[in-house]
Amino acid sequence: MNTEITIHPRLQHCGLTTGNLDGMLEWYRKVLGIVVHARVNAPAGSPFRTVAFATNDEINHRLSFFETPGLPSDSDRDRHARVQHIAFEYRSLDDLLGTYLRLKKLGIPLLWAADQFIQTAMYYQDPEGNIVELNVNNFDDDWAVTEQLQNLPAQLHVNIDLDKMIAARKAGAAPWELHERAVAGEFAPAASYELHTSRW
């Protein structure tokens, strides 16, 4: 039994509180494709009434939702310490861009999107105001991304218009070319994203 060296556990799941469990589960089903494996009553004396365990992969649960009926959303959350966002990674840029189009069709609004040098990412807000990042690596593998993270440029975020990027992709541009063109500012949005909302 090792008692001297730090063991590095893997991040397994995140827990979220909600006053609207059904609404949250439906949003995450649409956005991430989650499946609820269990929905149970909380123990007596708990501050929660119901707990749901959900995942979108082989792990038993990636997200747990703790419902307290009537729990208000924090309209002043940007002034409070909190989890800033949770992120999910796609295997290809086409998967990311296709997801953007699918969610747009479902009426789920995009908060903002950016080329962040190591990755291309887009951000959404769930019904409780939590930020969900969906991303894809811009480099070949995780080791390459880690190496590049240690050598980031002075400006990390280059905001992008995903519709412009999709048009270029459909015209035949390869993913790496799209990254280079994004960094060069070719896909800049016509208007700035509103990042300083009461819920950001």
Description:
The structure is a single chain. With 200 residues, the protein is of the alpha+beta class. The protein folds into two domains: 14-67; 84-183, Signal recognition particle alu RNA binding heterodimer, srp9/1. Helices cover 26% and strands 24% of the residues. It is built from five helices and nine strands. It has helices at 21-32, 93-105, 142-149, 162-170, 175-183, and strands at residues 14-18, 35-41, 50-55, 63-67, 86-90, 112-115, 119-125, 131-137, 158-159. The strands form two sheets. Strands 5-8-7-6-9 form a five-stranded mixed sheet. The radius of gyration is 19 Å and the shape is globular. 18% of the residues are buried.
Bin the strand percentage: 15-25%
Distance between the termini: 44 Å
CATH topology of the largest domain: Signal recognition particle alu RNA binding heterodimer, srp9/1
Order of helices and strands: EHEEEEHEEEHEHH
Mean pLDDT: 91
Largest sheet: 5 strands, mixed
Q: State the shape.
A: globular
Number of strands: 9
Going across the biggest sheet, name each strand in turn. 5-8-7-6-9
CATH architecture of the largest domain: 2-Layer Sandwich
Q: What structural class do helix, strand and pairing data support? A: alpha+beta
C-alpha Rg (nearest Å):
19 Å
The count of domains is 2
- The number of distinct helices, counting runs of at least 4 residues, comes to 5
CATH class of the largest domain: Alpha Beta
Q: Name the helicity range.
A: 25-40%
